[in-house]
Specification:
- This protein has one domain.
- Helix content is about 80%, strand content about 0%.
- The relative contact order is 0.13.
């Protein structure tokens, strides 16, 4: 356990070293968050303007079969498209750096625009899966919720490498899922543990910020609480952007090793080799 945690920490620090070389990669997760918030606000405003919320509150909206699931599907497609677009940009720049190049922001946008068709196709597939799992949860109640969690986790694992496969190998959606699953089997354990490890480090860095509103509130009263909450949110948003970029870099590094059998120069060979272990 501690050995795996140690490797996860080294993956975190080596991914961070890559990010330090190309800080502009942070532009993509930041923009993803901003665009996502704008999209959410636009859809909420649109729903209010069209009277959808009042119809559902009155019960008339629920009389239309599948209306709620249709709205959920649209929401999933929009959010997935935004997330995937900027993930593609992040991984494209990460690949350039890991292969010895010096990427700029334009490289990321160029890659995302060139793969817009694949991004939209995968967003639709992901939205469809998400809605199906929600239907299962709603229809089967407690058992459905458990199935939703289990099947959702299995789907996430199988499609762990879907983005690099889609954009770097130019495969169709079906072939990309199969290819991603095959790579996951090669990297079983470490690939997912590395991601979980980064999540743990992110949590450890985020947790102390909870004390800011308390400490500043004790020192400066109500104004201190507000300032502490603002600082806490800013810190959390910064961490979210950094760890989103690190996740893209790490996933790209593992994908490159899986396809070339040559560890990226920015990562320790024994560290990347250790990600490919038997199940």
């Amino acid at each position: 356990m501690f050995d795996r945690l140690g490797r996860s920490y080294r993956l975190f620090t080596e991914s961070l070293a890559v990010l330090k070389q190309d800080k502009e990669i942070l532009v993509f997760p930041v923009l993803s968050g901003i665009v996502g918030l704008v999209a959410m606000a636009s859809m909420v405003f649109g729903g209010w303007a069209l009277g959808l919320f009042s119809r559902f509150a009155e019960g008339s909206g629920r009389d239309v079969p599948g209306a709620g699931y249709a709205i959920l599907f649209v929401w999933y497609v929009v959010t997935w498209t935004i997330t995937l677009y900027f993930n593609v940009a992040t991984m494209a720049c990460a690949r350039i750096r890991l292969e010895g190049g010096d990427p700029v922001v334009a490289d990321g946008f160029r890659a995302a625009n060139a793969n817009l068709g694949s991004i939209l196709a995968w967003a639709v597939v992901s939205a469809t899966v998400g809605v199906i799992l929600q239907v299962v949860a709603d229809r089967l109640k407690f058992v459905g919720v458990l199935l939703q969690k289990l099947l959702g986790a299995a789907w996430s694992v199988a499609t762990f490498f879907i983005v690099p496969v889609l954009i770097f190998e130019k495969r169709g959606v079906g072939d990309s899922v199969k290819r991603s699953t095959a790579i996951v089997k090669e990297t079983w354990g470490e690939a997912l543990a590395g991601t979980a490890g980064m999540g743990l480090f992110g949590f450890l860095l985020a947790f102390p910020a909870i004390a800011l509103p308390i400490v500043l509130g004790m020192a400066f009263g109500g104004g201190g609480v507000v300032a502490g909450l603002a600082l806490m949110l800013v810190w959390w948003m910064l961490l979210a952007a950094v760890f989103a970029a690190l996740g893209g870099i790490y996933r790209t590094a593992l994908y490159l090793y899986a396809t070339t059998k040559t560890p990226p120069a920015a990562f320790s060979p024994e560290l990347v080799n250790g990600a490919f272990v038997p199940r």
